[in-house]
Amino acid sequence: MVAIRFGLFYEHQMPRTGEQGEEQRLYSDALDQIEIADRVGFDYVWEVEHHFLEEYSHSSAPEVFLAAASQRTKRIRLGHGIVQLPPGVNHPARVAERVATLDLVSGGRVDFGTGESSSSAELGGFGVRRGEKRAQWSDAIDAITRMFVEEPFAGWESKYLQMPPRNVIPKTVQKPHPPLWVACSRRETIHFAARNGIGALSFSFVEPEDAAKWTEEYYRIIENECVPAGFAVNPNVTVVLPMMLHEDEAVAIDRGIDGAHFFGFALAHYYGTTPHDPGRTNVWEEFLERRAQSGFDRDQIIANAEALNVNVGSLRGAVGTPDQVADLIRRYEAAGVDQVSFVLQAGNNKHEHICESIELFGKSVLPRFVEGREEREAQKAERLAPAIEAALARRKPARELPPGYRIDEDAELVRARRAKRAARPTGVRPALALVRDEARGSARRQMQKGFYRLIHGRSDAEIERRFGPRAQRVFFAGMARQYDASMAGGFEGELEFRLTRADGTVSPWTIVVRDGKARARMGEAREPVLTIITGAADFLRTLSGDANPASLLMDGKLKLRGDFELAPKLSEMFGGPSPY
Amino acid sequence: MVAIRFGLFYEHQMPRTGEQGEEQRLYSDALDQIEIADRVGFDYVWEVEHHFLEEYSHSSAPEVFLAAASQRTKRIRLGHGIVQLPPGVNHPARVAERVATLDLVSGGRVDFGTGESSSSAELGGFGVRRGEKRAQWSDAIDAITRMFVEEPFAGWESKYLQMPPRNVIPKTVQKPHPPLWVACSRRETIHFAARNGIGALSFSFVEPEDAAKWTEEYYRIIENECVPAGFAVNPNVTVVLPMMLHEDEAVAIDRGIDGAHFFGFALAHYYGTTPHDPGRTNVWEEFLERRAQSGFDRDQIIANAEALNVNVGSLRGAVGTPDQVADLIRRYEAAGVDQVSFVLQAGNNKHEHICESIELFGKSVLPRFVEGREEREAQKAERLAPAIEAALARRKPARELPPGYRIDEDAELVRARRAKRAARPTGVRPALALVRDEARGSARRQMQKGFYRLIHGRSDAEIERRFGPRAQRVFFAGMARQYDASMAGGFEGELEFRLTRADGTVSPWTIVVRDGKARARMGEAREPVLTIITGAADFLRTLSGDANPASLLMDGKLKLRGDFELAPKLSEMFGGPSPY
Prior knowledge:
Oligomer: homodimer
Pfam family, one (chains A, B): Bac_luciferase
Protein name (chains A, B): LLM class flavin-dependent oxidoreductase
Keywords (chains A, B): Monooxygenase, Oxidoreductase
Domain SCP2 (chains A, B): 490-574
Domain Luciferase-like (chains A, B): 9-339
Number of strands of chain A: 16
Radius of gyration of chain A: 24 Å
């Protein structure tokens, strides 16, 4: 049994109203809330880094916000979660500097969350190629952790970063550096976190029972095969959930469900293919207009004792009474989850309700989980110690620059340019491959955009008429072609799709994944690992980005049979974007 | 008569001791000091951004430090001074985001200082070409101020920044944006600040009587010919001085002079050509060993009533009694300076002495300058209003992106690459010119390094023997060749050099600047604008970076006749580096 810790999680959401001073109030309210959380015993406050995601997240400089929070709090840990590591967004030296400075002003309370960046708004805004962001993450985290421990940092010459030897100052209070985390949204990335020996910060609103499998695999990898990305291992799994607490369940729902649903809706907006016109698109209005058809119908949420058992996937999350939420947490605890972090400041949720919930959590929920926590954590540390020691021995050690180096601006600039040139693919063949991959990705996304326009606003009947069985064949063949084995986390087997039509007929399709390849055929599967049952029109809406599977699922318009946890990663396996 | 405001100025200096926890103490002491300053009535706290400048400045993430300070203070303004604007250091969108976020958490208390970056450690570390940093500053400040006011920012396609339309959020509390400043170290950059309609943050330790000419020119340009870089004009001139205050002058000197001198020594170390081995060079020890020969002899500073009249140039600054310092401030006030900012945390200056000085300043100096300040400021604003209105009408207005833009990652990446390619010089000729300029700059700096090794540690006699009149001819011809008209601020006329030798003989040399060109000849000048009298050996030491003119001046080893204020800009005019 693990010890469980609690966090608050901030996106700084702000439905567009145009009111004077609303951003300032949002920030000052959040600081007040965190002050309360610190007092009542929350362990973490997490603050995202997102750029240009109007309404969904006005938290573009979390280093500034968390530094402000550091002076309003005494013991709560400051989760810098997540910093976008592609060097086009943040120069690695600037990341090391700001993390260290935050560690200094907070007296060593920083947790350093990392991510690749993922929305089109951010990747396009900073000119980061989607196909290279994982490689950029790996490169940057290696460089940054070396900046923490090497004195001086011995320099870097990769495709993404060229930097001469420098002593990067200041240094962190925590040694060798603050605990590392990575944003995860799929089982594959949880594995990735484990292989890198860093904490998994999971945003996939996973049910406790599914989380159990994730944590089991996570710790198996940590104990057996991880090669740490940093110079310390941080074995921890955190799940993130919307929350609102009240003794009266109906009040909790009334206060919290719109915010939770807006959170889900706006996430789908920015990470799907919904068109976005910067400064103009009003996501909050779109939410109010389209929430029901997107699966976020307010009326479907009914207060009842069993609610939290089934509705995590629908973003009901931890909206309920202290008993309900404590029960939910117990299940995560049983699943081996180390931390649950709550999103309270979502949509238009009210400041006073958030403060009340935090106080109530501190009074009525948190005390149930405190007893024996330190002991259990000590036991866990002791149990993992040999594995961690072995893992750290596998990581390439800190380098020692021989004395006598001299800073030399001109020579360094020349060397950096040479290194950058050398990292570029040379010759006609790799260059052509690059152009081709880019053209393909681009063409695909262009096609999806056109597709969205054909689908959006049409009735089921219209869509079914326009896209018959022949069109279905094209789409399934396309999915199979776009299959990306690196995103499949080793999955092999049959995926079955049963597309129902208004006239009651069903078209069965199967995609077989084997030997790193996918193949589509019409007809039922022999041994489907997962069967997806949905309307033909809704299926096409999903492909076009006009509907999202989680919402359909909650609406009862999409049913799953078999290995549920495979479902959320289908879109990545077949070439779609993910939220982190 | 202007109204004068007061600031504290932080570099976060930390002589290398290797003690555990020293950086954390440095930061936490600074926060305590700022809290006192806020309480006793200081108006500004300025925090630099410097990278890799060990010992001289451990302030690499001022956005984090100032955010912490925002929650410890109520009314003091937070001077982000200066943010390095080359996009290789900070992406312009990240700068806009952090300035806005700091403005939010501080309730609108940010002043936004900007600079080009200038040390070899920083330019080489981030791969910024020295010859392009001014152009990068201009490009970035235009983009950043548009990010503040355009909603959405309509995008950017220049040589240095390619960014598609995005709504950069959050927005600042202060409208249209926080007051802008630029770091200045020479008369030329003061003019530059005025032409751009932004505050001049001057680091050149200028004497009050010289400052009068600067402010006069500054306000003449503001009123007549400025084209604002931002969307508001910030007409202000700030000077920065070391400070330590005590009723007993000898105590003030004892507590403050080493810090002030280390400040000057370390500045010369990083902005001259002294070799630096990252993580190894001990600047504090070099200071202790070489302070006297570098002109920072502790014993030369003697408590006497007239001290502050003559020693500003020697970094005595505002180290003295309340009466002395108030007198000095009166002279700056009379010179039209709008703000004096004090460096207290320098070298090994003690926390308790700094706190005492801040308290004493609040009690005994500040009250003398408060009366009628608001009225005088209102008068100034009223007087300048028509000129500012006219200036703002000259600035290209905020753009309005037509509605209907759609975020499109692929298309945006392709467009960014195309824009970058288009901005590159094409064809053989410009490309060759680029290579040539770079090779020249590099060769020059290489030569200077070799020269340093020939000079360093030699006696006057050795140097005179080795470099006779023939060598002098080579150096003067070289200076004339390296003359850069863009750094001369319109100067024309004769500069005379009188090089004295141990045997009592004098070699006179003249450099004539006319029509954008410089020419050197042996012999006295007819009408020298400035005459520089120094030993032949010291002159060569200065050229090699082994001595610095300010120290020689203070030591009496260098004398000036004529237009004093021309002297500090000689090194830039003839191709040397500057501290900002």
